[in-house]
Design goal:
405 residues, Arc Repressor Mutant, subunit A, Nucleotidyltransferase, domain 5, 5-stranded mixed sheet, 14 helices, 19% strand, WH_DNA-bd_sf, ATPase_NBD
Amino acid sequence: MREGDGYSADQTLLPAVPAGLRRVLDLVLAGEATNRAEIARRSGLARSTVGQQVDQLLGRDILEELESGESVRGRPPRLLTLSPHAGTIAVADVDTLDTRIAIADLGGRLIAQDTVTVRIDTGPESVLEVVCDRLHALLERSGRDPDRVRQVVMGLPAPVDRDRGCPLRPNGMPGWDGYPVAERLRARFRAPAQVDNDANLMALGEAVQARTETPVLCLKIGNGIGAGLITAEGRIYRGADGAAGDVGHIRSLGGGTALCTCGNVGCVRAIASHRAVLRTLDIPESTEEDPLHGVHELAERVANNDPPAVRALRQAATEIGELAAMLVYMYNPRTLILGGPLSDLRDDLLSGVRAVVYQRALPLATRNLTITTTRLGAASAVHGAVALATGDVFSERGIARLLVD
């Protein structure tokens, strides 16, 4: 459903999705049935009903039917699968210095990805223009129709108002507070758009793509410190106003008078974030030659066992461990995952966090707890964004959009 230069989100115009069609599509997407006969057997629907619903999905280019090439006798069965023409998902994981972008098919398979060097403090209009242009370039380069983008998802390092699709009072992001990010994405891609917190998407990516055991608590340690929680039911816990997980502003007992970007002193973010460690070591965060100079310089110093760098990293690990122990008490996760630039220095960081958590938390909360770093690395949030998008595309309203578009 597309109107003019923007996407119309008026759900009152969407038709009801037949239960039989939804059942057919669910079986094919889950891989539980690959042909009409299997669908009829597993669903209990009449073959004529299955045929009608399959034909409708074929006619809308949502499914395609292929010759299997294998037959015991008679004509080989025709296999049903998601059509490559069904559409594309576009996602972006915005960070302070660079942004990871990707496009995927509706089955969640990444088609192409890239990294865009753009500073978040240049403002939302500048960032969105560059990121959207590069996403369109990815679509063109991959031969994907820009008019068949079914969902756009953007992750931001800030609390997010999901209903309005905008960041809320972000630190270090001038011009972003209340900016209608989702609205701008809808207008640019003429498709539904969602905006979420980057730590939430990182946690979702680890839970869905890496099949990490839930509940999952993910700590992203970048220029700030944020947490994403995936419940045992596989849902993102966002809180009442989207502020859940903004844990970097919890006061540290050892924080002293360190000034945080929020205006308070002693926040964990101010003494244990990646930016705080760089500041302690007088390492520039970026240079003209290398926008990620701080990441590379710190990694090199730690690899060379530079005493000040190792000491600073271990001190940060202790502070993060104290924070993690408190969160383990509160949420009792099955898996605690460390992500962000500091997690790449996994030996010192991981061992330090583990030591504090197991010392501070009681055995009841840690007896089945796994503490590790991201399995997907820097791509975690991208995979989480894709998972969030596919969940909406194949929701009741998402299928209805596919049927009328």
